[in-house]
Design a protein that fits this description.
The complex is a heterotrimer of chains A (about 325), B (about 280) and C (about 375). With about 325 residues, chain A is mainly α. Chain A is built from 13 helices and 2 strands, in the order αααββαααααααααα. Chain C starts with a helix and ends with a strand. The chains are: A mainly alpha (about 325), B mainly alpha (about 280), C alpha/beta (about 375). Chains in contact: A-B, A-C, B-C.
Chain lengths: ~325, ~280, ~375
């Protein structure tokens, strides 16, 4: 039985309070953004979240955040469409198929993808990736399939598609590392059971391992979505920076705007006491709410799979 | 029933597909590293590291203020982020096996994935607008919002790796709980605590969005705590968007410096971890 | 072994920090107490301001000026938030801004022109546009390069059938203010639908950050058209259109045609520095050889400097002296960078404004 002196209690309480730092930061952020955006919310109410016009010109102000919400969702959706299959393929390869010798180096390189700062992804995006995408993907698609609405518009590389591709690359380390843990956590008895009835390796993976790890893999995907929603710099540099109804992502090859890129581009110009700054803060509030919701859901799903325990002494 | 040959074919096919996934994911990494090196390496010189930016049309100068600014930010942010993060991680690891701990752990993890632009916006409103000027301290506070949850998480993981026998032995000798944590558990986890902090430093060194609205940027070296300051990621962003080739080239050079900084931290952390057998 | 590596890393960081600290303290500028001034705002005058600042700093070695070009809107916002010592803007303060930044002075420091830059692979010279056609392009009414409206002005040029890709500003910009002012004068439908502003509700096109961003995109992508301040267009050897002026002539933007515009335009009837400049513009100047899209660009500063937190007598004096230098000796830098010098009547207005700057009620020396 451990002795509990008053110093022990003080220490425990002190660390317990500091453990709430994250929650405190979230509360401060939420409160600041809510109070900062009140002026605009009072005037426009729900139409701030459903409107599409964005006009800060004096006398004709109208602010609507919907296009940027759609831009965030569209780029994240493309990121998931491209990134999830790649990430799960990587996870399967590393856990089930790779010889032990290359497992560590390859997983290390995948993790380095996560270490590259976002602004460098953006730099590479505008000077390298964008031209590659225009030449090899967008122009052929536009020439042959340009009649399909999603491929309409003249491709110049600074658009929803490029932003989605860069986001996909950035979320691969997140999704693949969690997927790796999920797949590794599948008990070997399951694998042995599959082999014992004559399944090939791929059949074992597909029908036994992946279905066993279904919920964990889904949690990994949501985690990746949370990361994609919060990404700012790389997206800002390649998304095309349109405003208002022109920002609604109607085509992969048209420029758009996400909630985070709108703020990064515009808030410095927002005059403090006009309606413009509260409007940007309002978009920030929307982004905060969406990010909180998705990330909390992701955490709950992933922790359910791993049942993380705390406390060294029970 | 499908023939065995077909099933075997599918097996091989998916092996190739999975391998392709790996190669497709690694190709951008190779491209980024190659481009940054090719475009940035010609910029490196003593002048590049120590001089402020030059005049348009004259000598392009260097990114000295940006490097200094990033170093200063790292120090200031760590002063705030490391103590708070470590204490937070201590709670989660040593006392946190309850509902409160689980909840705080969840919020901590949520904050690590938080949009950094929102952090910048908040600190801009709370600090820059009320103080009336941009400041390295505002930048450090914004970056610490990101650093604290990362350090808390790595501290928790480090402390949980210390075997219980160590704690029990200490308690059995009559050492108080808090003293056990500070004098026995923390030192045992020293290496992984340091590596965790270094990884957090690498993360915040590359953050741009929180800095746009808090330190703004500066053409000159550090001017004091009530003036704007430059930083590497800011310089990369601003230089990259200038249509003057000599400044774009500086942006690539700055990107090379930043990548070297971040990757060398990551590589040395890995190396330490594998050598110590974890 | 681990400990040694960790110690090694810490030592390297300490050495790096030491080197930088040494440089900071040994650099001649900071060995005395240096005076720091901060300004932010328009991207258009950035090349000129940057050159002027660096030249001024070599003459006055204890003064360090930091100018961040984040867009005119950003400058005005910073002025209103009093987070900078001076701001720069291509757009004058509007009515609401004047309420938010009371008792501020407009000090025109140079003159700029908005050019219409384009990227057509086979059309390098002789491309004509008029104000109403430009308005139709940027409002999305005209979508292809060989549209009859454009072709009508360019009868001896073969225009491609490609779509026009419009590039506009994504940040709050005085350049946009000047450009949309011109479009409002040229097209009634533009005026009623979109109007004039530092940002407008662009119906088509992509947005780029700063004059620099627009120049980058137009140069890097074919079949684009954008509006860029003259200095950036000339520096980057961009292809620009000749615009029809009120006299009916097709005028290319050059230092000469802009100077003519300034001299013949509304250089008479300008307000005093502390007055209302919101109606001032040099658009559609009457001379037959004048380029039609011309404007002042302003430095904005409070008349009484003690409203800025952290302002001191020394810094206020330095700021005043810097401003005086900008409108006098600094002007010599302009032609080499493709900016137009201030005509003498504007310099006189600026002199009166700068002399009226006070700190704690006291007038400040100008040199």
């Amino acid at each position: 039985m451990t002795q509990n002196t008053s110093v022990d209690s003080v220490f425990k309480i002190l660390t317990a309070i500091l453990a709430a730092s994250a929650l405190l930061i979230l509360i401060i952020t939420g409160y600041t953004l809510l109070s900062g955006s009140l002026p605009v919310l009072k005037i426009f109410g729900i139409s701030f979240f459903t409107g599409t016009q964005w006009n800060p010109v004096e006398g004709r102000e109208v602010f609507g955040a919907l296009p940027y919400l759609l831009g965030t969702l569209a780029t994240s959706a493309i990121a998931l469409l491209i990134g999830v299959p790649l990430s799960i393929g990587i996870a399967i390869f590393l856990v089930e198929m790779a010889p032990r010798a290359i497992r560590v180096p390859i997983s290390y390189f995948i993790d380095i993808l996560a270490a590259v700062p976002s602004v460098i992804y953006g730099l590479w995006g505008i000077f390298v990736l964008r031209y590659w995408i225009v030449d090899y993907i967008e122009t052929p698609l536009s020439t042959y399939l340009g009649w399909i609405p999603i491929f309409s518009g003249t491709p110049y590389g600074l658009d929803v598609f490029t932003a989605g591709v860069i986001l996909a690359i950035m979320i691969i380390p997140t999704i693949s590392s969690v997927s790796r843990e999920v797949i590794s956590a599948v008990p070997n008895s399951i694998r042995e059971g599959a082999y014992s009835i004559g399944a090939t390796r791929w059949e074992m993976i597909r029908n036994w391992v992946l279905s066993y790890g279904r919920s964990g893999l889904f949690g990994a995907v949501i985690l990746g979505l949370g990361r994609a929603i919060g990404e700012t710099m790389a997206v800002t540099m390649v998304i095309g920076n349109t405003v208002g109804p022109a920002a609604i992502p109607t085509s992969l090859f048209k420029g758009s705007q996400t909630m985070s890129s709108l703020i990064a581009n515009g808030f410095l110009e927002a005059t403090p006491a006009s309606l413009e700054l509260p409007a940007y803060i309002g978009v920030g509030l929307l982004l905060l709410l969406l990010s909180l919701a998705i990330n909390i859901i992701a955490e709950i799903m992933v922790s359910r799979v791993f049942k993380i325990k705390g406390g060294a002494i029970e | 029933m499908k023939s065995y040959a077909y099933r075997k074919f599918k097996d091989r096919l998916f092996f190739v597909l999975s391998l392709t996934c790996v190669l497709v994911a690694l190709a951008p990494l190779a491209s980024i590293l190659i481009e940054v090196i090719i475009r940035g390496a010609p910029q490196l010189s003593v002048q590049f590291f120590t001089q402020p930016a030059g005049v348009i049309g004259g000598s392009a100068g260097g990114i000295g203020p940006a490097i200094q600014g990033t170093l200063i930010l790292i120090v200031l942010t760590s002063l705030l982020g490391v103590p708070l993060g470590v204490m937070s991680g201590i709670y989660l690891a040593e006392y946190g096996n309850n509902k409160y701990g689980t909840l705080m752990r969840m919020f901590n993890n949520v904050l690590t994935e938080f949009p950094s632009i929102v952090v910048g916006l908040t600190v801009f409103i709370i600090i820059v607008l009320t103080l009336g000027h941009f400041s390295p301290i505002a930048g450090a506070i914004a970056l610490s919002f990101i650093m604290i949850p990362v350090v808390a998480r790595t501290t928790e993981e480090s402390l949980k790796l210390v075997p219980n026998s160590v704690r029990e032995a200490s308690l059995a000798l009559g050492v108080r709980r808090w003293r056990t944590i500070i004098s026995v558990v923390l030192p045992s986890a020293k290496a992984s605590l340091v590596t965790g902090t270094l990884l957090a430093v690498a993360r915040i060194a590359g953050e741009t969005a929180p800095l746009i609205m808090t330190v703004l940027g500066n053409q000159n070296f550090f001017q004091g705590f009530s003036q704007p300051m430059d930083a590497l990621p800011l310089r990369i962003w601003r230089d990259a968007l200038l249509p003057y080739p000599e400044f774009q080239a500086q942006g690539w050079g700055a990107a090379l410096v930043l990548i070297i900084m971040v990757l060398s931290i990551n590589i040395s952390v890995r190396w330490i971890s594998t050598r110590s057998g974890r | 072994m681990n400990n040694k590596i960790i110690v090694g890393i810490v030592v390297i960081v300490a050495i790096a920090a030491g080197i930088y600290g040494y440089m900071y303290y040994s650099s001649p500028k900071t060995s005395q107490t240096s005076i720091s001034l901060t300004g932010s705002g328009a991207t258009f005058p950035f090349p000129l301001l940057d050159t002027m600042i660096k030249q001024y700093e070599t003459q006055k070695t204890n003064v360090l000026i930091n100018y961040q070009s984040i867009g005119s809107g950003g400058g005005i916002a910073a002025l209103e938030g009093k987070t900078v010592d001076f701001a720069a803007s291509d757009a004058p303060l509007g009515a609401a801004d004047m309420v938010m930044a009371p008792n501020s002075l407009h000090i025109p420091e140079t003159i700029g022109a908005v050019t219409i830059a384009y990227n057509l692979p086979n059309v390098k010279t002789g491309f004509h546009l008029s104000g109403s056609v430009i308005a139709d392009i940027f409002s999305g009414k005209v979508t292809t390069w060989n549209d009859p409206e454009i072709q009508a002005l360019n009868s001896n040029v073969t225009l491609p059938s490609n779509n026009i890709l419009i590039v506009h500003r994504s940040d709050g910009s005085g350049t946009t203010f000047i450009f949309t002012g011109y479009l409002s004068l040229s097209s009634d439908s533009w005026k009623s639908a979109l109007g004039q502003g530092k940002t407008v509700a662009w119906p088509v096109g992509i947005g780029a950050n700063g004059n620099t961003g627009v120049a980058s995109v137009v140069q890097g992508t074919q079949y684009t058209i954008g509006y860029v301040e003259l200095a950036y267009a000339l520096q980057n050897k961009m292809t620009v259109a000749a615009i029809q002026n009120p006299a009916g002539n097709w005028i290319l933007p050059t230092l000469n045609t802009i100077q003519i515009a300034v001299q013949s335009g509304a250089s008479k009837g300008l307000p005093a520095g502390g007055g209302d400049w919101s109606g001032v513009n040099l658009l559609n100047a009457p001379d037959p050889q004048a380029y039609p899209i011309v404007s002042f660009t302003y430095l904005l500063v409070y008349k009484e400097l003690n409203v800025i937190p952290g302002m001191t007598q020394d810094r206020a004096t330095s700021l005043t002296q810097f401003l005086w230098w900008v409108v006098h000796d600094g002007q010599a830098n302009a032609p080499g960078l493709a900016y137009v010098q201030l005509p003498s009547n504007v310099v006189q207005i600026d002199e009166a404004s700068i002399k009226s700057i006070t700190f704690n009620g006291q007038q400040l020396p100008t040199s």
